[in-house]
Amino acid sequence: MQKKILLTDCPDAKGLIAKITNICYKHQLNIIKNDEFVDRAQGRFFMRTALEGIFNDATLLEDLDMALPAGAERRLVASGRKRLVLMVTREPHCLGDILMKCYAGALDVEIAAVIGNHPDLGALVEKFDIPFHCLPAEGLQRAQHEEQVMALVDDYAPDYLVLAKYMRVLTPEFVARYRGRIINIHHSFLPAFIGAKPYQQAYERGVKIIGATAHFVTDDLDEGPIIEQDVIHVDHAYSAEAMAAAGRDVEKSVLSRALQLVLQERVFIHGNKTVVFK
Amino acid sequence: MQKKILLTDCPDAKGLIAKITNICYKHQLNIIKNDEFVDRAQGRFFMRTALEGIFNDATLLEDLDMALPAGAERRLVASGRKRLVLMVTREPHCLGDILMKCYAGALDVEIAAVIGNHPDLGALVEKFDIPFHCLPAEGLQRAQHEEQVMALVDDYAPDYLVLAKYMRVLTPEFVARYRGRIINIHHSFLPAFIGAKPYQQAYERGVKIIGATAHFVTDDLDEGPIIEQDVIHVDHAYSAEAMAAAGRDVEKSVLSRALQLVLQERVFIHGNKTVVFK
Amino acid sequence: MQKKILLTDCPDAKGLIAKITNICYKHQLNIIKNDEFVDRAQGRFFMRTALEGIFNDATLLEDLDMALPAGAERRLVASGRKRLVLMVTREPHCLGDILMKCYAGALDVEIAAVIGNHPDLGALVEKFDIPFHCLPAEGLQRAQHEEQVMALVDDYAPDYLVLAKYMRVLTPEFVARYRGRIINIHHSFLPAFIGAKPYQQAYERGVKIIGATAHFVTDDLDEGPIIEQDVIHVDHAYSAEAMAAAGRDVEKSVLSRALQLVLQERVFIHGNKTVVFK
Amino acid sequence: MQKKILLTDCPDAKGLIAKITNICYKHQLNIIKNDEFVDRAQGRFFMRTALEGIFNDATLLEDLDMALPAGAERRLVASGRKRLVLMVTREPHCLGDILMKCYAGALDVEIAAVIGNHPDLGALVEKFDIPFHCLPAEGLQRAQHEEQVMALVDDYAPDYLVLAKYMRVLTPEFVARYRGRIINIHHSFLPAFIGAKPYQQAYERGVKIIGATAHFVTDDLDEGPIIEQDVIHVDHAYSAEAMAAAGRDVEKSVLSRALQLVLQERVFIHGNKTVVFK
User: Fold this and answer.
1) What average pLDDT does this structure show over A188-195?
2) What percent of chain C has pLDDT over 90?
3) Which residues of B are annotated as catalytic?
4) Residue A67 in 3-state DSSP?
5) Cα separation of D214 and A62, whole Å?
6) For residues B108 and A136, what is the distance between their CA atoms, to the nearest angstrom?
7) Average pLDDT score, chain A
8) pLDDT tens digits for D3-32?
9) CA nearest D126 in A: which residue?
10) Average confidence score pLDDT of chain C
11) Are A14 and B25 an interchain contact pair (Cβ–Cβ within 8 Å)?
12) What is the pTM assigned to this prediction?
């Protein structure tokens, strides 16, 4: 008995659930969990079907292709460990949480390597017997630095790139190369406080709640599809530094939760938004 | 075009989603939203299918009965206003929230009548042109009092009875007569602080969080299937009275949310638990 | 025995707590609750002292004026019911919650009158025996309309004006006339989604959390000092309308909580921020 | 310039704030933050005063002792790193979070050693160059095992003992030896689900919220003074195992927050409750 996940993303049409689940039934696959969503404004259908049984991938996909409307995307994903490359700068909290969750088995993923533009986090990474590469950006053109990073990333062939407080802006070339596969944590409740120093901005505005946002990276800074967000309450007694300290716990938990959702194939990218089946 | 909701609750079996959605497709009904859950430990399947189209109820149900396993329960419910009878004692906050939400159209329901064992809330109910009946319990045996209440309730033939801070314990006879149709709000995060004076108990225990629980009423006091719960943070500075005051906002919002879920046919009773499709 | 609240807002200096509490002690006043905050960046001291005893206001304030540094503001406020005028347009949820809380005694305040620029909410207000005035803006210059509103407001001499979903922008003249006394509820988690149609903006951005913000009104739209904020989680299945419906419960509870804080003299305005002693 | 915290816990009396802050002022100490609470039912006064200046501890305490009523307890605590011994069994999540927070400097504490009754977590602890001692209980009387533990703990002379998922019940002798200095994390929202397997109990009851509780350990199992609690929402789709997995994040954050509060001297034990100045 194997477990696989069938992901369907196609123009909406009548009878899609019946057609897809019929094909699964015909293949004697048991549906463990089924989630669907129709974006009526856009006329788009999304379905995630967790299946159990003996799979003949080729004929299953063939049957689906016959049944689904033109413009359909469908993937049949085997449950199994994905590979990550993490990118970091100096702050350890998000990196540390992911390392610890992997160590404890709470996040079922292989961290192939960690790349930092500063050396600070190397010692922490190496405690967990994971390769750490320091690629400093000083003295390099942005394009030159990114070429080094991309070469290294490609060596590891990761499924996803996780920016665990990587404090550099990526070029459109970089983003294009890993489209839909770069996950970032932004230290504000987007779209509030886009850009640099969000906690300083939050302090100056006098907000009573601060937050964090995990999103896919696109060319527009802090504008990519949001995967997960959360917040905590603060008050007048929080300095910008105290907000940053309090915010770290939200950042790490939002990033870890977003990562878990992506790893479990629960997230569809839908234009500039996501469909997330929790 | 009509909208109806198909509710299926049956022993688990292979191909149930395919079979049911196929029948819907054959009847040219469009599935707006489908939710399903399998309790694997109990081998029980639950599905809520929101449908749109032209319904032939009799043949649809016939087709379903042919397809579903023995022991299946299925209901096809027309969207439409349910009727409530509310039961109250003296506290206005839950009653007031329901009255106001109905007035504003946020809760699509008909409040047929309000029954109080004290006269205090009559004036409030009558502002909204809803009948209020005061049935005092003083000087009556419990059974006698309940007979009066049941006679009155039955006159109104409500779909659900909502205990909006009705501070009397119901007899098994009363509960049996409206089985699965009585919704209560308990002023604690059950199963903590079962029974009387939960805020006093919470104060004495020194908890840092208090809550409220909406549940179906069964014979065991405060032990019925939980529909919805929520909490708020408190601290050492809250007296039992301050906890009660703070708790009222949670009580009212938990009861209103639970009621909304029930009215939208999102709640299955499953033994002593619920399956709630949000 | 009387209860009063002493509010001190002055340049920071050594020994302020000792000096103020000493004076209270000398006057044989018992401190029930004391809260203080120093904004070190701005060098400003804030203290709220809840007192009990026999007050000689004149000599107490005289003693304080001797002890406090130049530029100090201090107020001694008798506990007692404040007067409100509410301003509304068409949506009943915030108005309804305030009306119901006053009726239930959960908000100790006198609602002197409700002013609407549409007639829709008149029937609801009058259920509670409170004067409702409809002042339509159609066919009037903004200044003309506001003159009518201000004349009416001034007749009622309220302590605070509460904009309970009043959907018009106020002129600087209006804001200046009631500086620091106008409380607004904005239907987003400010500073995200400033301006019109925040739920539509939130929907288009694909956020996973929506919120509400209660703030004092200043000349800059949606930029006044924030008193209270809260949020709820949403997902891809929420349309803009569903977000608006879900948001109403947050809006009403945030506005009611902010109002309660202001009425209990827990809020200092501090530049474009607030200091709130909960 | 030094920073110290003055903690006062005494019978309530008039003028206590004035007297204490006066003495601080006389000693030319600046009050950075002052928090006080009076339990009126018990007639007890609590104050935490964060001070800055040049301290003469002996005369300061002498002055205080003259001013405070009989039965007063007061402590003057230098800011500085406390020493912890952690006790664990097999689960790494709470331990891992504390280790990582210490590594990152987010928790300013020295972890002197970790003691496990199983060897499983030794490798993790040693990554951080902290001594790990495995003291298996198998084949020993409870008293014998605890003697070994106490001997080891005493060698390290910690300020606090943190039970980071230590799955053994402690004897009254053990508890008495470290009274008020043992912090435990319980994997439920106490007082719900006292005792073993709280997630299984929560699953069986069908609750919609699960939580975690950090508390001081007393002789009564799970009945000690609560320091911090938090919850997360769950639904019918969570098995007992899924609840346990989801609960781990709450457990670790509640324990870390409680520990931070204790380390910052923000927690008074008050009978079977706590007073916590956040």
Assistant:
1) 85
2) 94
3) 222
4) helix
5) 55
6) 61
7) 96
8) 999 999 999 999 999 999 999 999 999 999
9) A127
10) 96
11) yes
12) 0.96
Q: What percent of chain A has pLDDT over 90?
A: 94
Predicted pLDDT of residue D29: 97
* Mean pLDDT, residues D129-141: 97
pLDDT, tens only, A20-56? 999 999 999 999 999 999 999 999 999 999 999 999 9
Q: What is the ipTM metric for this complex? A: 0.94
Beta strands in chain A (DSSP E): 2-11, 30-39, 44-53, 73-78, 82-88, 109-116, 132-134, 160-163, 182-186, 209-216, 226-233, 267-270, 273-276
Cβ-based contacts of A253 with chain D (< 8 Å): 249, 253
Which H or E run contains B211? strand B209-216
- Which residues on chain C are in Cβ contact (under 8 Å) with D278? none
The CATH architecture one would assign to domain B82-276 is 3-Layer(aba) Sandwich (3.40)
The CA–CA distances, whole Å, from B90 to B85, C107, C128 equal: 16, 17, 18
Residues of chain C contacting D36 with CB distance shorter than 8 Å: 34
Q: Quick one: pLDDT at residue A105?
A: 94
* DSSP-derived 3-state class of residue A94: helix
Burial label, B13 (beta-carbon count in 10 A; 0-12, 13-18, 19+): middle
Question: What's A107's DSSP letter?
Answer: S
Name which of B246, C88, A218, B271 is nearest D236 in CA terms: B271
Question: Which pair of structure tokens corresponds to residue B173?
Answer: 């006879």
- C56 vs C54: CA distance, rounded Å: 7
- The pair of structure tokens assigned to C213 is 């913000």
Residue D94: C-alpha distances to residues C209, D86, D88, D162 (Å) = 28, 10, 9, 10
Q: How far apart are the first and last CA of chain A?
A: 24
CB contact under 8 A, C97 and B93: no
Helix or strand run (H / E) with residue D20: helix D16-26
Q: Give the DSSP letter of residue D68.
A: S
Q: Judge whether C112 and C82 are in contact, CB under 8 Å.
A: no
Domain chopping of chain A, boundaries: 2-78, 82-276
Nearest to C104 among B96, B128, B256 (CB): B96
Cβ contacts of B266 on chain C, cutoff 8 Å? none
Query: Using one digit for the tens of pLDDT, what is the confidence trace for C152-177?
Result: 999 999 999 999 999 999 999 999 99
Strands D82-88 and D109-116: parallel
Residues of D with catalytic function? 222
DSSP H helical segments within B72-184, as ranges? 93-104, 122-127, 142-156, 172-177
Assign a CATH topology to domain D2-78: Alpha-Beta Plaits (3.30.70)
Contact partners for chain D, using 3 or more CB pairs closer than 8 A, are A, B, C
pLDDT of residue D109: 96
Contact present, D186 and D212 (Cβ < 8 Å): yes
CA dist., res. D238 & res. D251, Å (int): 17
Q: Name every residue whose Cβ is closer than 8 Å to that of residue A213 and which is 6 or more positions away in sequence.
A: A185, A186, A188, A189, A190, A222, A226, A228, A229, A254
Cα C101 to Cα C156, C255, D4: the distances in Å are 21, 12, 45
Beta bridge partners of B86: B114, B162
- CA-nearest of C2, C18, B9, B173 to D47 is C18
DSSP D164-217: SS--SPPPHHHHHHTTT-EEEEESSSTTTT-SS-HHHHHHHHT-SEEEEEEEE-
The pLDDT of residue B8: 98
CA angle (B222, B225, B230) in 5-degree steps: 75
Question: CB contact, 8 Å: C218 with chain A?
Answer: no
**Count of beta carbons in the 10 Å neighbourhood of residue D77:** 14
Alpha helices in C105-219 (DSSP H): 122-127, 142-156, 172-177, 198-205
Q: Is the pLDDT of residue D221 over 80?
A: no
The single residue of A9, A63, A97, A222 carrying the catalytic annotation is A222
Most C CBs within 10 Å: which of D16, D29, D31, as the mutation test of the C interface?
Answer: D31
Instruction: Answer for the pair C223, C188: CB distance below 8 angstroms, yes or no.
Output: no
